[in-house]
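Handout, section B. The chain below has 363 residues.
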Amino acid sequence: MADHDKQGLGIEIRHLYKIFGKTPEKYVDLVRQGMSKTELNEQHGHVLGLKDINISMPAGGIQVIMGLSGSGKSTLIRHINRLIDPTAGEVLVGSDDVVKMNKDALREYRRHQTAMVFQKFALLPHRTVLDNTVFGLEIQGKPRSVQEESARYWIERVGLKGFEDSYPNQLSGGMQQRVGLARALANDAPILLMDEAFSALDPLIRVDMQTVLLDLQKEIRKTIVFITHDLDEALRLGDRIAILRDGEVIQQGTRQDIVLRPADDYIATFVKEVNRARVVTVESIMEPIVAGMDADLPTVEEGTLLEEAARKISLAQSHALRVVSHKGETLGAIYLATLMSAMVGAEDEASAPLTADALRQSA
């Protein structure tokens, strides 16, 4: 039986630069010294793709890279499997620097350590669902019995059992993307790269695919790097999010960090219309529990969204909730005023640190 639970590897990107042009290495120091993207292009005819990117991607999590068109997000993901060579910097996967790999090591790394899901599905039209799904395993030289066993397992897991003998042109867009996902998962690589993987899908199918991915991730715990230009998608999927603009990381952190503490006006504009209640969790606004506080307070478990906490505090007609761990241990408390303020937010203080004390004072 194929190993269907090979978990992710951590990825560390350090001081990564990418300059496009004939002699990019000549201009790295100028960019380090502060030369802008516009100046580099106008004065030297080179294009700055990425500037001093530093991102830690923990093993087994979903790292979202978000930005508008031209921000450098697709350029960045292509450095992880070295489809693009950097001008300077390191891409560490586990303890190995992908930038320093020779041709043979890079081939093995691409075959066994990474898998990619593309925006346009990239299915082979003359192959059935089953034969598309085994493609990566064919490249690896696995026996046909192993190929089919793994492929059939993942075809079923993505909800396509019964379609093994269908061809891509017989499938809807959402179904084709499920085949692309099954193909990537069948490789059993610890790193899954997804470049705008759901962007070509209709909105409802897109949400459905997000759900499929989140459900599978609970089982597979791969290191997933997910590229998107959609904030709602980023907030739904990302354990951590990095937002790029003009090739630079403007802010990175958890979804709560991004929504509650936008780094600048650019990020604040992005998150202005976000429904905080469906993004922020109770531990983000809880405080140490006050000595002597009534132990009979209604409880809410860590990881609960504010929306659910508000429903619970309302039904209980209580002024506070006790936050407990998954094991039932008391972690802290949240107060009604704090909860309501966190859900609404204070527009004139969008970039200020959002603390429980500040929230209660503003309520």
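Note. The CA atoms of residues 14 and 162 lie 45 Å apart. Compare this with the example in section A.
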